[in-house]
Amino acid sequence: MAGPEDGRHERDVTVRGVRVRAIEAGSPDAPPLVLLHGFLVNHSEFDDVLPALAERFHVIVPDLPGFGDSEKPSPSRYAYGIDAFAEAVADLIAAFGVGRASVIGHSMGGAIALTLAAHHAELVDRLVLVDPLSYPFPLSLKARIPLFPIVGGIVFKQLYGRSLFRSYFRDDVFSREATLPLARIDLAYDKFNGPAARESAFAVMHAILDTRPVVARIGRVRAPTLVVWGRYDKIFPVANAQRLVRDISGARLEVLETGHSPHEERPREFVQKVVEFLDDTR
Question: Where are the domains of the chain?
Fold first, then answer.
């Protein structure tokens, strides 16, 4: 399906036996750039930066298995988690035939990008980690409720409605000064609000709580790396940014005056920092 002025279109590919929907934009002759979304959302979280990035790159933005318009297999058939997602992205890069690609990962997508760079250095040209899931992080009471035995599953799969979904993004993801992108949040909720999608997200939530496997791979990253962090991130403290930059050899750091999603709150500044990094290290 054709898209706006950036020429985006949709493409389905099969990765690890799962049908994945991806958005493709920009010239296929441009340097490839893969964008990986976070938990509970989909490719649309990059809508504000996609047109500008597509002017310079061949951009590929998948909905990860279980999210958005991608297939949502049962957890008994697909091992949801960071490793499985990283292997799916490796298959995705092969399916698009772009060879090595630069990779931007946000939040959970950052952990996937980091894992991909550690396991498949031959596929990752440059790496941008945006408020990535990495070191252990504190959970609010609201975040812990779905983890309670028995009742947690009921809450998450049946009672977690649109208002709670909105409040999570309002209170935890975006800073106080941000304009809440309600249409995008509601779209994410609509994609989440089905039995298969909730079952998948529930499995992912449990799989990503233990960040030790991600931490163990940080030292194996050799790709030139830019770490972008929102100063007012309430989910992953900005103190983790300095630690991550120390642990990845040669990594650079940019702290933006935002919450957990810098590319949504300050898209122009985000694109400027990313393009400068990618051009400078090319």
Answer: 9-280
